[in-house]
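Hello again, I could really use a second opinion on something today. Take your time with it, there's no hurry, and the full record follows here:

___
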Amino acid sequence: MSKNFFKLLFVGIAAFSTSAVSAQFEENSFFDESGDVSVEVASNMPTSGPKENLEPIELVNPRADDIFWQKVVYRVLDLHEKMNYPLYYPEQAVDNRQSFFTLIFRLVQEGKVTAYRYLDVREIFTKEHEMTFKEMLNTYSDFIIAEPKADSLTNDTIFYVEESNIPNTKVTKFYVKEVWYFDKITSTFNSRIIAFCPILAAEVDGVRKTYPLFWVPFETLRPYLAQQEILITDKNNGARPSMDDIFVKRRFSSYIFKESNIYNRNLLQYNTNAEDVRKEQQKVKTLLLNFENDLWEY
């Protein structure tokens, strides 16, 4: 064989090797060119997917005339509960993830969602009860450190809060307002979250106090919750549903502290001890369960 044949054979083998190596780093490869796990791995898992343009799960909005039974219930969402860890961690944003409170805080700061003042009597989601970000900072200045800056375009004073100064570790509970209802047209018993209220807990003069910060309607949050992924298990880093999935599918732990009633009292106001509170909580849960079961009794 001639020398030219061997030269051509060598060039062919080299070219094949180069193309094989480059093929290892195609767009959908598990490893990237640096040898690290590709950033696309999690988004290509069957349990996850790209969420940048993801829309919230569409919910049916029944006609008011079709609802002949409804009950408003208030719950406490405790982030210390293991099932709720994905809503609390990470304490500071990392790896395309952030806590539930950090997300709400930034949305209020950027004016993307409206916060409403917390009132002891009832929740009113109207313009006159809106709470601006500046008002919130002034009200809770002892717990939130904000830095005033001049806007580069308007020269207006804006307030910026560093990631480490968001009181995420002090907000470990939320009030959840929800409604349970029966739709006579579809013959379905459903529940719908109405709003969330983050609760800040801190020691003041040696006494631990709680401060319900503000209410945020669930529907205004949903477009952003749908695009916020969370890590729900350490066993599979690719299992990253959206926050909207968690709430709509009710994959969270909570307990009842109030139901709608004539006197507008919560359970602690008319029960003298923890055992009585637990009994009343069970009573409300039984009421909801029995209503659905009784619908199909003959």
Q: What stands out?
A: The helical segments are 3-23, 85-88, 100-109, 133-139, 218-225, 243-248, 274-294.
